[in-house]
Design brief:
Purple Acid Phosphatase, chain A, domain 2, 2 domains
C-alpha cells in the first residue's frame, strides 16, 4: 500500500490522495506510470474504504450482503465505477455515445440498418458439451442453461423471443450473468414484467441462479429474488447430488463495480468442482488461481458489430480480450463467453449471433486427453 500512496503523492500531492486514487489508475492505463497487480489490489482496497460502512452498525444476519449494498449504492450515486484496473472515464462514455449515433446514421444511409436489426432479433440456442476430469459421476450430463445481456428494454419483442427459445428446455440449472436493462443509469422497472415472463418459462431442477451486470442497479436485487432467482453477490451456492456436490460462485460485476469482496469470494469456496458466474471475463486470473474448472460470463456481446470472420471491433474489456466470445481455456480452467440475447447502443448485429447457451457438463473418463 505504501508504494501506491507514494505514486499518488508523486502525481498529485498529499492533499489530494483521497479523491485521486482513480486518477492514478487512469494514468496507469495511459502508460504514464506503472502499477503492478499487487498495487492494483491494494488500491482497490483503499478505494473501497471510502464506501465502507461501519460494520458495528450491522447486525449478524446477512452482514456481507448489506455491506455490499451500501458500497454499491455509494458507487452508483457518485458515478464511481471502479473496474479491476481503472475507473471508467465519463468523457469516454460520452464520446462512445456520439460515435454510436454517427455509426447508426451511416448504417441507415448505406441501407444496412434494417438488416442489422433482423440479425439482432435472431436468437439461436447454442449447445455444447464440456468435459472435466474433476466432475463427479453424479453430475455427469448436468445441463446448464446460460442467459446473459438480455437488455430487455432495447428492442421490443426480445423477451418474447427468449421465452420461445427456452420454454420447452428441461435443464438442471439456469444461470444468468447480468445486464437486464438497456442503460447503466435511470429507471429499471420497465424490464421487470418481461423478466418475470422469462424466468417463469425456465424449467430447472436446481433453480435459477444469477448475478448483476454493469447495467444493473443494486436495488434490482430484491425484485429479481422475488421472481425466484437466487442472486449471488460475491457468494457461493452449493448444489448436491447425494454425497457429491458442485459449488457455484457468483460475483458482482467486476467491470464497473469491482471490490475486494469479489476476490475474497473466489478464495473462500470449498474444494471440488467449482463454477464461476461473472458478468465479464475480467476475473479469469483469480478464478483459475482458486481452482475453478468452469467460468461462465457475457458482457461483450461477442463484439456485437464485427468484421467479416467475427473479429470484434470493440469488446468493452480491459483484460481478457482474447476471451471475447465462445469457448476458451486458460490453463486448467474452461470458459464460455456468451454473446448475449440482446443488444445495446445501436440495436444491430453484424457477424455475431444473439444466443442462449445450453451447456452439458461431461465427466472425462480416465485416459481421455485434456487438462480440466
Amino acid at each position: 500500500m505504501a508504494a501506491v500512496l507514494k505514486k499518488i503523492h508523486l502525481v498529485f500531492g498529499e492533499n489530494r490522495i483521497n479523491n485521486q486514487c482513480s486518477s492514478v489508475q487512469k494514468l496507469h492505463i495511459s502508460g504514464w506510470i506503472s502499477i503492478n497487480d499487487t498495487d492494483m489490489d491494494a488500491m482497490g482496497f483503499y478505494l473501497e474504504k471510502q464506501f465502507r460502512p461501519d460494520t458495528e452498525t450491522l447486525g449478524p444476519e446477512d452482514e456481507r450482503r448489506r455491506l455490499w449494498r451500501q458500497r454499491r449504492s455509494a458507487m452508483e450515486r457518485r458515478y464511481h465505477k471502479s473496474g479491476r484496473y481503472a475507473l471508467r472515464r465519463f468523457f469516454k462514455f460520452k464520446i462512445m455515445v456520439r460515435l454510436e449515433h454517427a455509426f447508426g446514421y451511416g448504417l441507415r444511409a448505406a441501407g444496412l440498418y434494417s438488416q442489422g436489426r433482423k440479425n439482432a432479433m435472431h436468437i439461436a440456442v447454442n449447445t455444447l458439451d464440456l468435459h472435466f476430469s474433476k466432475l463427479s459421476a453424479s453430475f455427469d450430463g448436468y445441463r446448464v442453461l446460460h442467459l446473459t445481456d438480455l437488455h430487455l428494454d432495447m428492442l421490443n419483442g426480445t423477451a418474447a423471443l427468449i421465452y420461445e427459445k427456452i420454454k420447452d428446455l428441461k435443464v438442471d440449472l439456469c444461470v444468468l450473468t447480468g445486464d437486464y436493462r438497456q442503460r447503466t443509469y435511470g429507471k429499471y422497472r420497465q424490464i421487470l414484467d418481461p423478466m418475470k415472463k422469462i424466468l417463469d418459462a425456465v424449467s430447472a431442477e436446481d433453480g435459477i441462479v444469477g448475478t448483476l451486470g454493469n447495467h444493473d442497479p443494486h436495488v434490482m436485487a430484491g425484485d429479481l429474488e422475488a421472481m425466484g432467482m437466487t442472486l449471488l453477490v460475491n457468494e457461493t451456492k452449493i448444489i448436491k447430488r447425494g454425497d457429491e456436490q458442485i459449488g457455484v460462485t457468483g460475483l458482482d460485476d467486476p467491470h464497473d463495480y469491482y471490490t475486494c469482496q469479489a476476490k475474497e469470494a473466489l478464495a473462500e469456496t470449498p474444494n471440488g468442482f467449482k463454477m464461476a458466474l461473472v458478468h465479464s471475463p475480467e476475473m479469469y486470473h483469480a478464478a483459475e488461481r482458486n481452482g475453478y474448472q468452469l467460468y461462465l460470463c457475457g458482457h461483450t456481446h461477442g463484439g456485437q458489430i464485427c468484421l467479416p470472420g467475427g473479429y470484434p471491433i470493440i469488446t468493452h474489456l480491459r483484460d481478457g480480450k482474447k476471451f471475447a466470445r465462445g469457448s476458451w481455456q486458460f490453463n486448467r480452467m474452461k470458459g464460455y463467453t456468451n454473446q448475449g440475447c440482446g443488444v445495446v447502443g445501436i440495436p444491430v448485429r453484424f457477424n455475431t449471433q444473439s444466443e442462449v447457451a445450453l451447456i452439458t457438463l461431461r465427466r472425462r473418463r480416465a485416459g481421455r486427453p485434456g487438462k480440466a
